[in-house]
Amino acid sequence: MPLKRTDPPALLVLEDGSSYHGYAFAGRGEVLGEVVFNTGMAGYQECLTDPSYKGQILVMTYPLIGNYGVNDDDMESAGIHLEGYIVKEYQDQPSNWRSRRTLKDFLEAHGRLGVDGIDTRSLTKKIRTAGAMRGILSTNVDDKAGLLERVRAYPGLVGQDMVAHVASTTPYLWKDGAAQPLRVGPKDRLRVVVLDCGVKYNILRHLEALSCEVMVVPSRTAAKDILALEPDGIMLSNGPGDPEPITYAVETIRALLGKKPIFGICLGHQLLGLAVGGRTSKLKFGHHGVNQPVKNIATGRIEISSQNHGFVVLTETLPKDTVVTHTNLNDGTLEGLAYPGLKAFSVQYHPEASPGPFDANYLFQDFLTLMKTHAG
What we know:
The protein has 376 residues and is an alpha/beta fold. The protein has 2 domains: 145 residues, 3-Layer(bba) Sandwich (Glucose Oxidase, domain 1), CATH 3.50.30; 212 residues, Rossmann fold, CATH 3.40.50. Helices cover 21% and strands 31% of the residues. The chain contains 9 helices and 20 strands. The strands form 3 sheets. An 11-stranded mixed sheet has the order 11-10-13-12-14-15-20-19-18-16-17, with helices on both faces. It has a 7-stranded mixed β-barrel with strand order 1-2-8-6-4-3-9. The chain has a two-stranded parallel sheet with strand order 5-7. A hairpin with a 4-residue loop joins strand 19 and strand 20. Helix 7 crosses helix 8. The chain is globular. The protein starts with 8 loop residues before the first strand and ends with a helix.
């Protein structure tokens, strides 16, 4: 006989009127967001702290979540950015020597709603068929009609500037694995300026591991102010939501093209595509997980990649001199582009992983080589 739940009931209502019942194992209240699923078997802490999930309610397809707790080392930002969290079964007794707190405690410390007991397999099949949908997750389960009315009035992610909610507002120096006040002095090594649209810490960790001086600047920083820092290279970071409303970053990138080596990741890849004149569109249900196969066109090698994005650059809208470097083997979408004459390249996926495989971390070395080639 199943144990009686003491957690309050919770309800997920999608914009098409379908609903899913569960229990709030963390937090109380009501949140709105785009409902997406992630296929990773591990890495829930990194997903929770990835700024790219801002504006979304995340469903984990792996059924047991929370079993290794939360630690102090696997943070990808300073907090949780997603709107709500849905799992099949929450494990409240973690077993791992690195664990410092439970997933429940972590979610509640950041004011986030966590729900389990939902049939995540059925929900995932629904999203795969119908596409990512707007949803409302609430512990007010007695007013489904009201919930449906509110979710249908929710504008969703398209056309919204989500970067403004997650990007840093002041520049900082990333040193010794942490953010420190920015002090600009003489260069004694390669200097990378990171345009922060919601950067993951592991991108910064990789750059520091390559002995780069890493300076992070807000997404609205002008090109002239970036160049004033005398960078040897510029990183365009990941971030959440629709790239097309981020016109200020597109203008900055356009003004930087050809002046310094540029490497874009995820949203940074999309912004680079827009800066050269391309267009983007929304994917049906996005790519969220650690098992996406990507083909490297130059080598023919297949890389298993970590991905988290809901929009894609349309290859046919790019200039004729675009070099397509990587493609997704699942759906044929663009995964990488390059402009050798402009010293710029980008990938749609996450070579820094965290979570995920490190098949593509060679791209950081490629960026280092490009900076060394054009230094001075």
